[in-house]
Write a structure and sequence with these properties.
The protein is 24% helix and 33% strand. By secondary structure, the chain is an alpha+beta fold. Strands 4, 6, 9, 10 and 11 form a five-stranded mixed β-sheet that branches.
Length: 393
């Protein structure tokens, strides 16, 4: 048994027990380390947490030895123990520690001493706040992460988590998934929330998988770190969901319009053909284009109008002009848009090789487009945004 109880920071030990243990933890601690005290307290009779803490503190004080208690705390929660021990930059217990100084008394600083009164402490706080404001104002977004780290250390709170891939914004193709990880020093768990389109694999964990929907949109994914001291500020990541296909002949005037799929009807049976897919048809089959689905990424303002043109091509590579037809023109809107096919039925000829399907875009713009020959005698009013070849097999 030691005889140095006066060297233990009793108030700090009490806060340590209160922060790191619940009632069940305290009961287990007493039963394992202080069986005599456990029997005297009668822990099965519903003692409150503060009553158990007061009893164990009194027991250690009377025996003039807090070492077994602190060793148990260190074993139970090393991180929390280290945070409390770090306050004085000395071990939490032992003959070398001094009682916590009070305001207005002498503070030992290295080899000398200085008297610090209450007014000096207030002045230090004011100076620290002013410096913090100056750093944020001068450094802007560059200095803000550093300030957050300093503030987290000063206040003993968690910093905002870092996210990989980093933001503030990333892009994901529609229908695809991406793993996103979070990291915050000292965190024991992470909580995720999603606003907008798509879904995540779960609300907790150091990593989640974000799965984009089948069409473009926006989402905001946020993560908060937690530990025994509380929660961190959240970190947010904007996710821009793009079209699953890219326009092969994107014009110069946005937005760009891409073909997502074409639904044909062959002898009364539907066939959905994706971009650059095959059409199962034979000579003599009757074929209709029921509908075309186009995809447009998010954009600002008016997108103009668009229509889709179908060009049958023979084995020599020549367009069969008598069989060329197209859809009606529709307004361009973000996301997926389905356009009704042309009111026309083709009879597949023996020399038909494929359909060349072209997206013609009429932007609402005073600027010239990139296609001076998009339409005969109407230069620069439209441009080809996408095309696809649908082989006939």
């Amino acid at each position: 048994m030691t005889n140095n109880s006066q060297h233990y920071p009793v108030d700090r030990i009490r806060r340590l027990l209160n922060a790191g243990f619940d009632e069940a933890d305290l009961v287990g601690l007493l039963q394992d380390k202080f069986p005599q005290l456990s029997g005297k307290l009668g822990l099965g009779h519903g003692l409150r947490k503060d009553e158990i803490i007061n009893a164990v503190m009194d027991y250690c004080r009377r025996h003039k030895d807090f070492t077994p208690l602190l060793d148990s705390v260190k074993e139970h929660d090393p991180e929390l123990y280290a945070d409390f021990a770090d306050v004085s930059q000395q071990p939490l217990y032992g003959s070398s520690i001094k009682a916590p100084p009070q305001r207005g008394r002498k503070f030992a600083l290295l080899e000398g001493e200085v008297r610090i009164g209450p007014w000096m402490l207030k002045a230090k706080v004011v100076v620290a706040v002013v410096l913090l404001v100056i750093v944020v104002g001068v450094c802007g977004t560059v200095g803000r992460p550093m300030v957050e780290q300093w503030t987290a250390v000063w206040l003993r709170t968690l910093p905002a988590p870092e996210i990989a891939p980093s933001g503030p914004q990333i892009t994901v193709k529609a229908g695809e998934g991406i793993a996103i990880r979070a990291n915050a020093k000292g965190a024991s768990r992470y909580e995720w929330t999603l606003a907008g389109v798509g879904e995540i694999s779960g609300p907790e964990g150091a990593a989640v998988v974000y799965t984009a929907p089948d069409e473009p949109g926006m989402a905001v994914l946020s993560v908060t770190a937690h530990n025994s001291r509380g929660a961190s500020p959240p970190t947010s990541l904007m996710i821009d969901v793009l079209c699953p296909t890219i326009a092969d002949a994107a014009g110069t005037v946005p937005p760009s319009v891409a073909i997502a799929s074409i639904t044909f009807v062959v002898n009364g049976v539907e066939q959905v053909v994706d971009d650059w897919g095959l059409l199962q048809a034979s000579p003599g089959d009757r074929v209709e284009a029921k509908e075309v689905t186009i995809c447009v990424d998010r954009f600002e303002g008016s997108g103009g109008r668009v229509y889709v043109e179908f060009n049958p091509v023979d084995d020599s590579g020549q367009v069969i002009t008598s069989e060329v037809t197209g859809t009606i023109a529709v307004a361009v809107a973000p996301g997926l848009t389905t356009i009704s096919g042309p009111d026309h039925t083709w009879t597949i000829g023996g020399d038909w090789r494929h359909f060349s399907v072209v997206v013609v875009h009429y932007p609402d713009s005073f600027w010239k487009t990139a296609s001076p020959e998009c339409e005969e005698n109407t230069p620069y009013i439209c441009e080809v945004d996408d095309y696809t070849i649908v082989p006939i097999r």
